[in-house]
Amino acid sequence: MEGKLRLGISSCLLGEKVRFDGGHKRDPFLVETLGRYVEYVPVCPEVEMGLSTPREALRLVGDPEKPRLVFSRSGEDITGRMTAWARRRVGELESENLCGFIFKSRSPSSGMERVKLYDRNGVPKKEGVGLFARIFMEHFPLLPVEEDGRLHDPGLRETFIESIFTLKRWRETAGRRGTPSALVDFHTRHKLLILAHSTELYREMGRLVAQGGTVPTSVLYEGYLKLLMKALHLNATVKKNVNVLQHMLGYFKRQLSADEKQEALEVIGHYHHGLVPLVVPLTLINHFVRKYGEPYLQQQVYLNPHPLELRLRNHS
């Protein structure tokens, strides 16, 4: 890919001391591992809108759909200030070419989901969304978003990172050529990756791609991107991955010896039953691709959708 992808992130996750208590929530994986492959655009809603550090803690109160942001002790309501700032800020972020955003979990300004929301009796329920996070997601409905807590789940982490790298490749295709033929090429190279998320959406995307030349290219690309992000939002399950692995194995019917085929089926079976992680059968398939020079699979992004150093397919 052409340069690092740009990713929005809550500033405290990078180690910046901007939290209400003057501290931070530095995340080693985001800073030291993923940070080698992305360029972060840090955002701290509370500090950027003018609040001091340290400061009185904030909380969400009231209606889950229209919560108010207030200081926990004084009760001062800063909903209007935060909303006005957030709307200006997301407008500014349009020029940053972001491929996604990582929010700070449980934050009344940046939490993506399950933020404590207090009722009139002061009883909290985990059904709130941070004010800035809500406005960001409404403004950028197609961008992949996650929060630090959920990224500790290996499956969610892989889904998010696969999405942001795919979006980066998509933008390079759309920006560099943006023709119906370029869309066909993108769809072809990403076939197996998309199938690992949704067979139904892959077929719908294929029908859309087939309309190239009969509908305006801008309409074609806009529709395809919506379906692409919808598909990538779905987790690639073990069952879906097994189907893709078996599909790839079919490309070597004439080349593989009986022993090689049996070995491959056993390894895929071990993955299916949770005995080995996905990286094991994929390593074997990649070996066959190199050994036999299978041209179609050589171009499949599914085999290398993100840097190996991220170790995203090493979990069972």
Task: Explain what this protein looks like in three dimensions.
This protein has 13 helices and eight strands. Helices cover about 45% and strands about 15% of the residues. The longest helix is centred in the middle third of the chain and has 23 residues. With about 325 residues, it is an alpha/beta fold.
Question: Strands, helices and their partners?
Answer:
Blueprint: E1 5-10, H1 28-33, E2 38-43, H2 45-48, E3 58-62, E4 67-71, H3 79-93, E5 98-103, E6 115-118, E7 124-128, H4 131-139, E8 145-147, H5 154-176, H6 180-189, H7 191-195, H8 199-209, H9 217-232, H10 238-249, H11 258-272, H12 279-292, H13 295-298
Parallel strand pairs: 1-2, 1-5, 3-6, 5-8
Antiparallel strand pairs: 3-4, 6-7
Helix pairs in contact: 3-4, 5-9, 8-9, 10-11, 11-12
Provide keyphrases for this structure.
four-stranded mixed sheet; alpha/beta; four-stranded parallel sheet; about 45% helix; about 325 residues
